[in-house]
Specification:
Elements: E1 8-12, H1 17-28, E2 32-37, H2 52-64, E3 69-73, H3 79-93, E4 98-101, H4 114-134, E5 143-147, H5 150-155, H6 167-191, E6 197-203, H7 214-220, H8 229-233, H9 249-260, E7 271-274
Parallel strand pairs: 1-2, 1-4, 2-3, 4-5, 5-6, 6-7
Helix pairs in contact: 1-2, 1-9, 3-4, 4-6
Protein name: (-)-trans-carveol dehydrogenase
InterPro entries: NAD(P)-bd_dom_sf, SDR_fam, SDR_subfam_1
EC number: 1.1.1.n4
Length: 282
Amino acid sequence: MGRVQDKVVLITGAARGQGRSHAVRLAEEGADIILFDICHDIETNDYPLATPHDLEEAKLEVEKTGRRAYAAEVDVRDKPALVDALKAAVDEFGRLDVVVANAGICPLGDQPVTAFADAFDVDFIGVVNTVHAALPYLKEGASIITTGSVAGLIAGTQPPATGGPMGPGGAGYSFAKQLVDAYTRQIAIQLAPKSIRANVIHPTNCNTDMLNSKPMYRQFRPDLENPTREDAMLAFPMMQSMPVPYVEPGDVSAVVVFLASDESRYITGSQFKVDAGAMLKF
């Protein structure tokens, strides 16, 4: 306990899934948490996103640990709103030590080309906006943690997609995650002289609402017209080398805590694959 004692951490996409898991785990280790989430749906993303109620529940879970929480409905695509919300949060807490740029969507399937733009804007531009809004507050010892994706890394090893079940939104997701990986290394180079770290985590299938959705079931079982979760569970393990269908949000949170803590004070510009050996196949 106390691995990030009295640090202040910003987490985007914090209302549920990996983001909420990170928030609670970091609070358990002594951090105060700033929770941002869009809390409304995006038209091209064919599964529901978090709600204001989800964000309030996440805030309460943090506060149950005895730590402070600040929650706001913020769209990471809107940099001015992000800057204003973060200023209000830092004014309340007095500092910012860690940034977890986690917000993401994956609009799979037969969507218009705007799905590419939506995925790219949330999954890459949203990460850049979050980090850049935070930079004025970060000091020596601070840590930036971005969320990539093994799916993005795998896509980067293959010829460019020309269609298929992923659709334009899936292509935007994969491309955005590839750029998050490259961006994190570049920002790490710029910040290293200031002793500020930046690292990226690449999860494989993770047991969240994004994975447990009809568009994702169809991605894994294109042979079926209306696959169920049970159908998809037969295909989920094919992604990993280890015989598991997915990792849990807590498995990713364990790495987030490490990277947020001073235990990783000399680790920067690195990839952390929480992938049950998925990349070993490529």
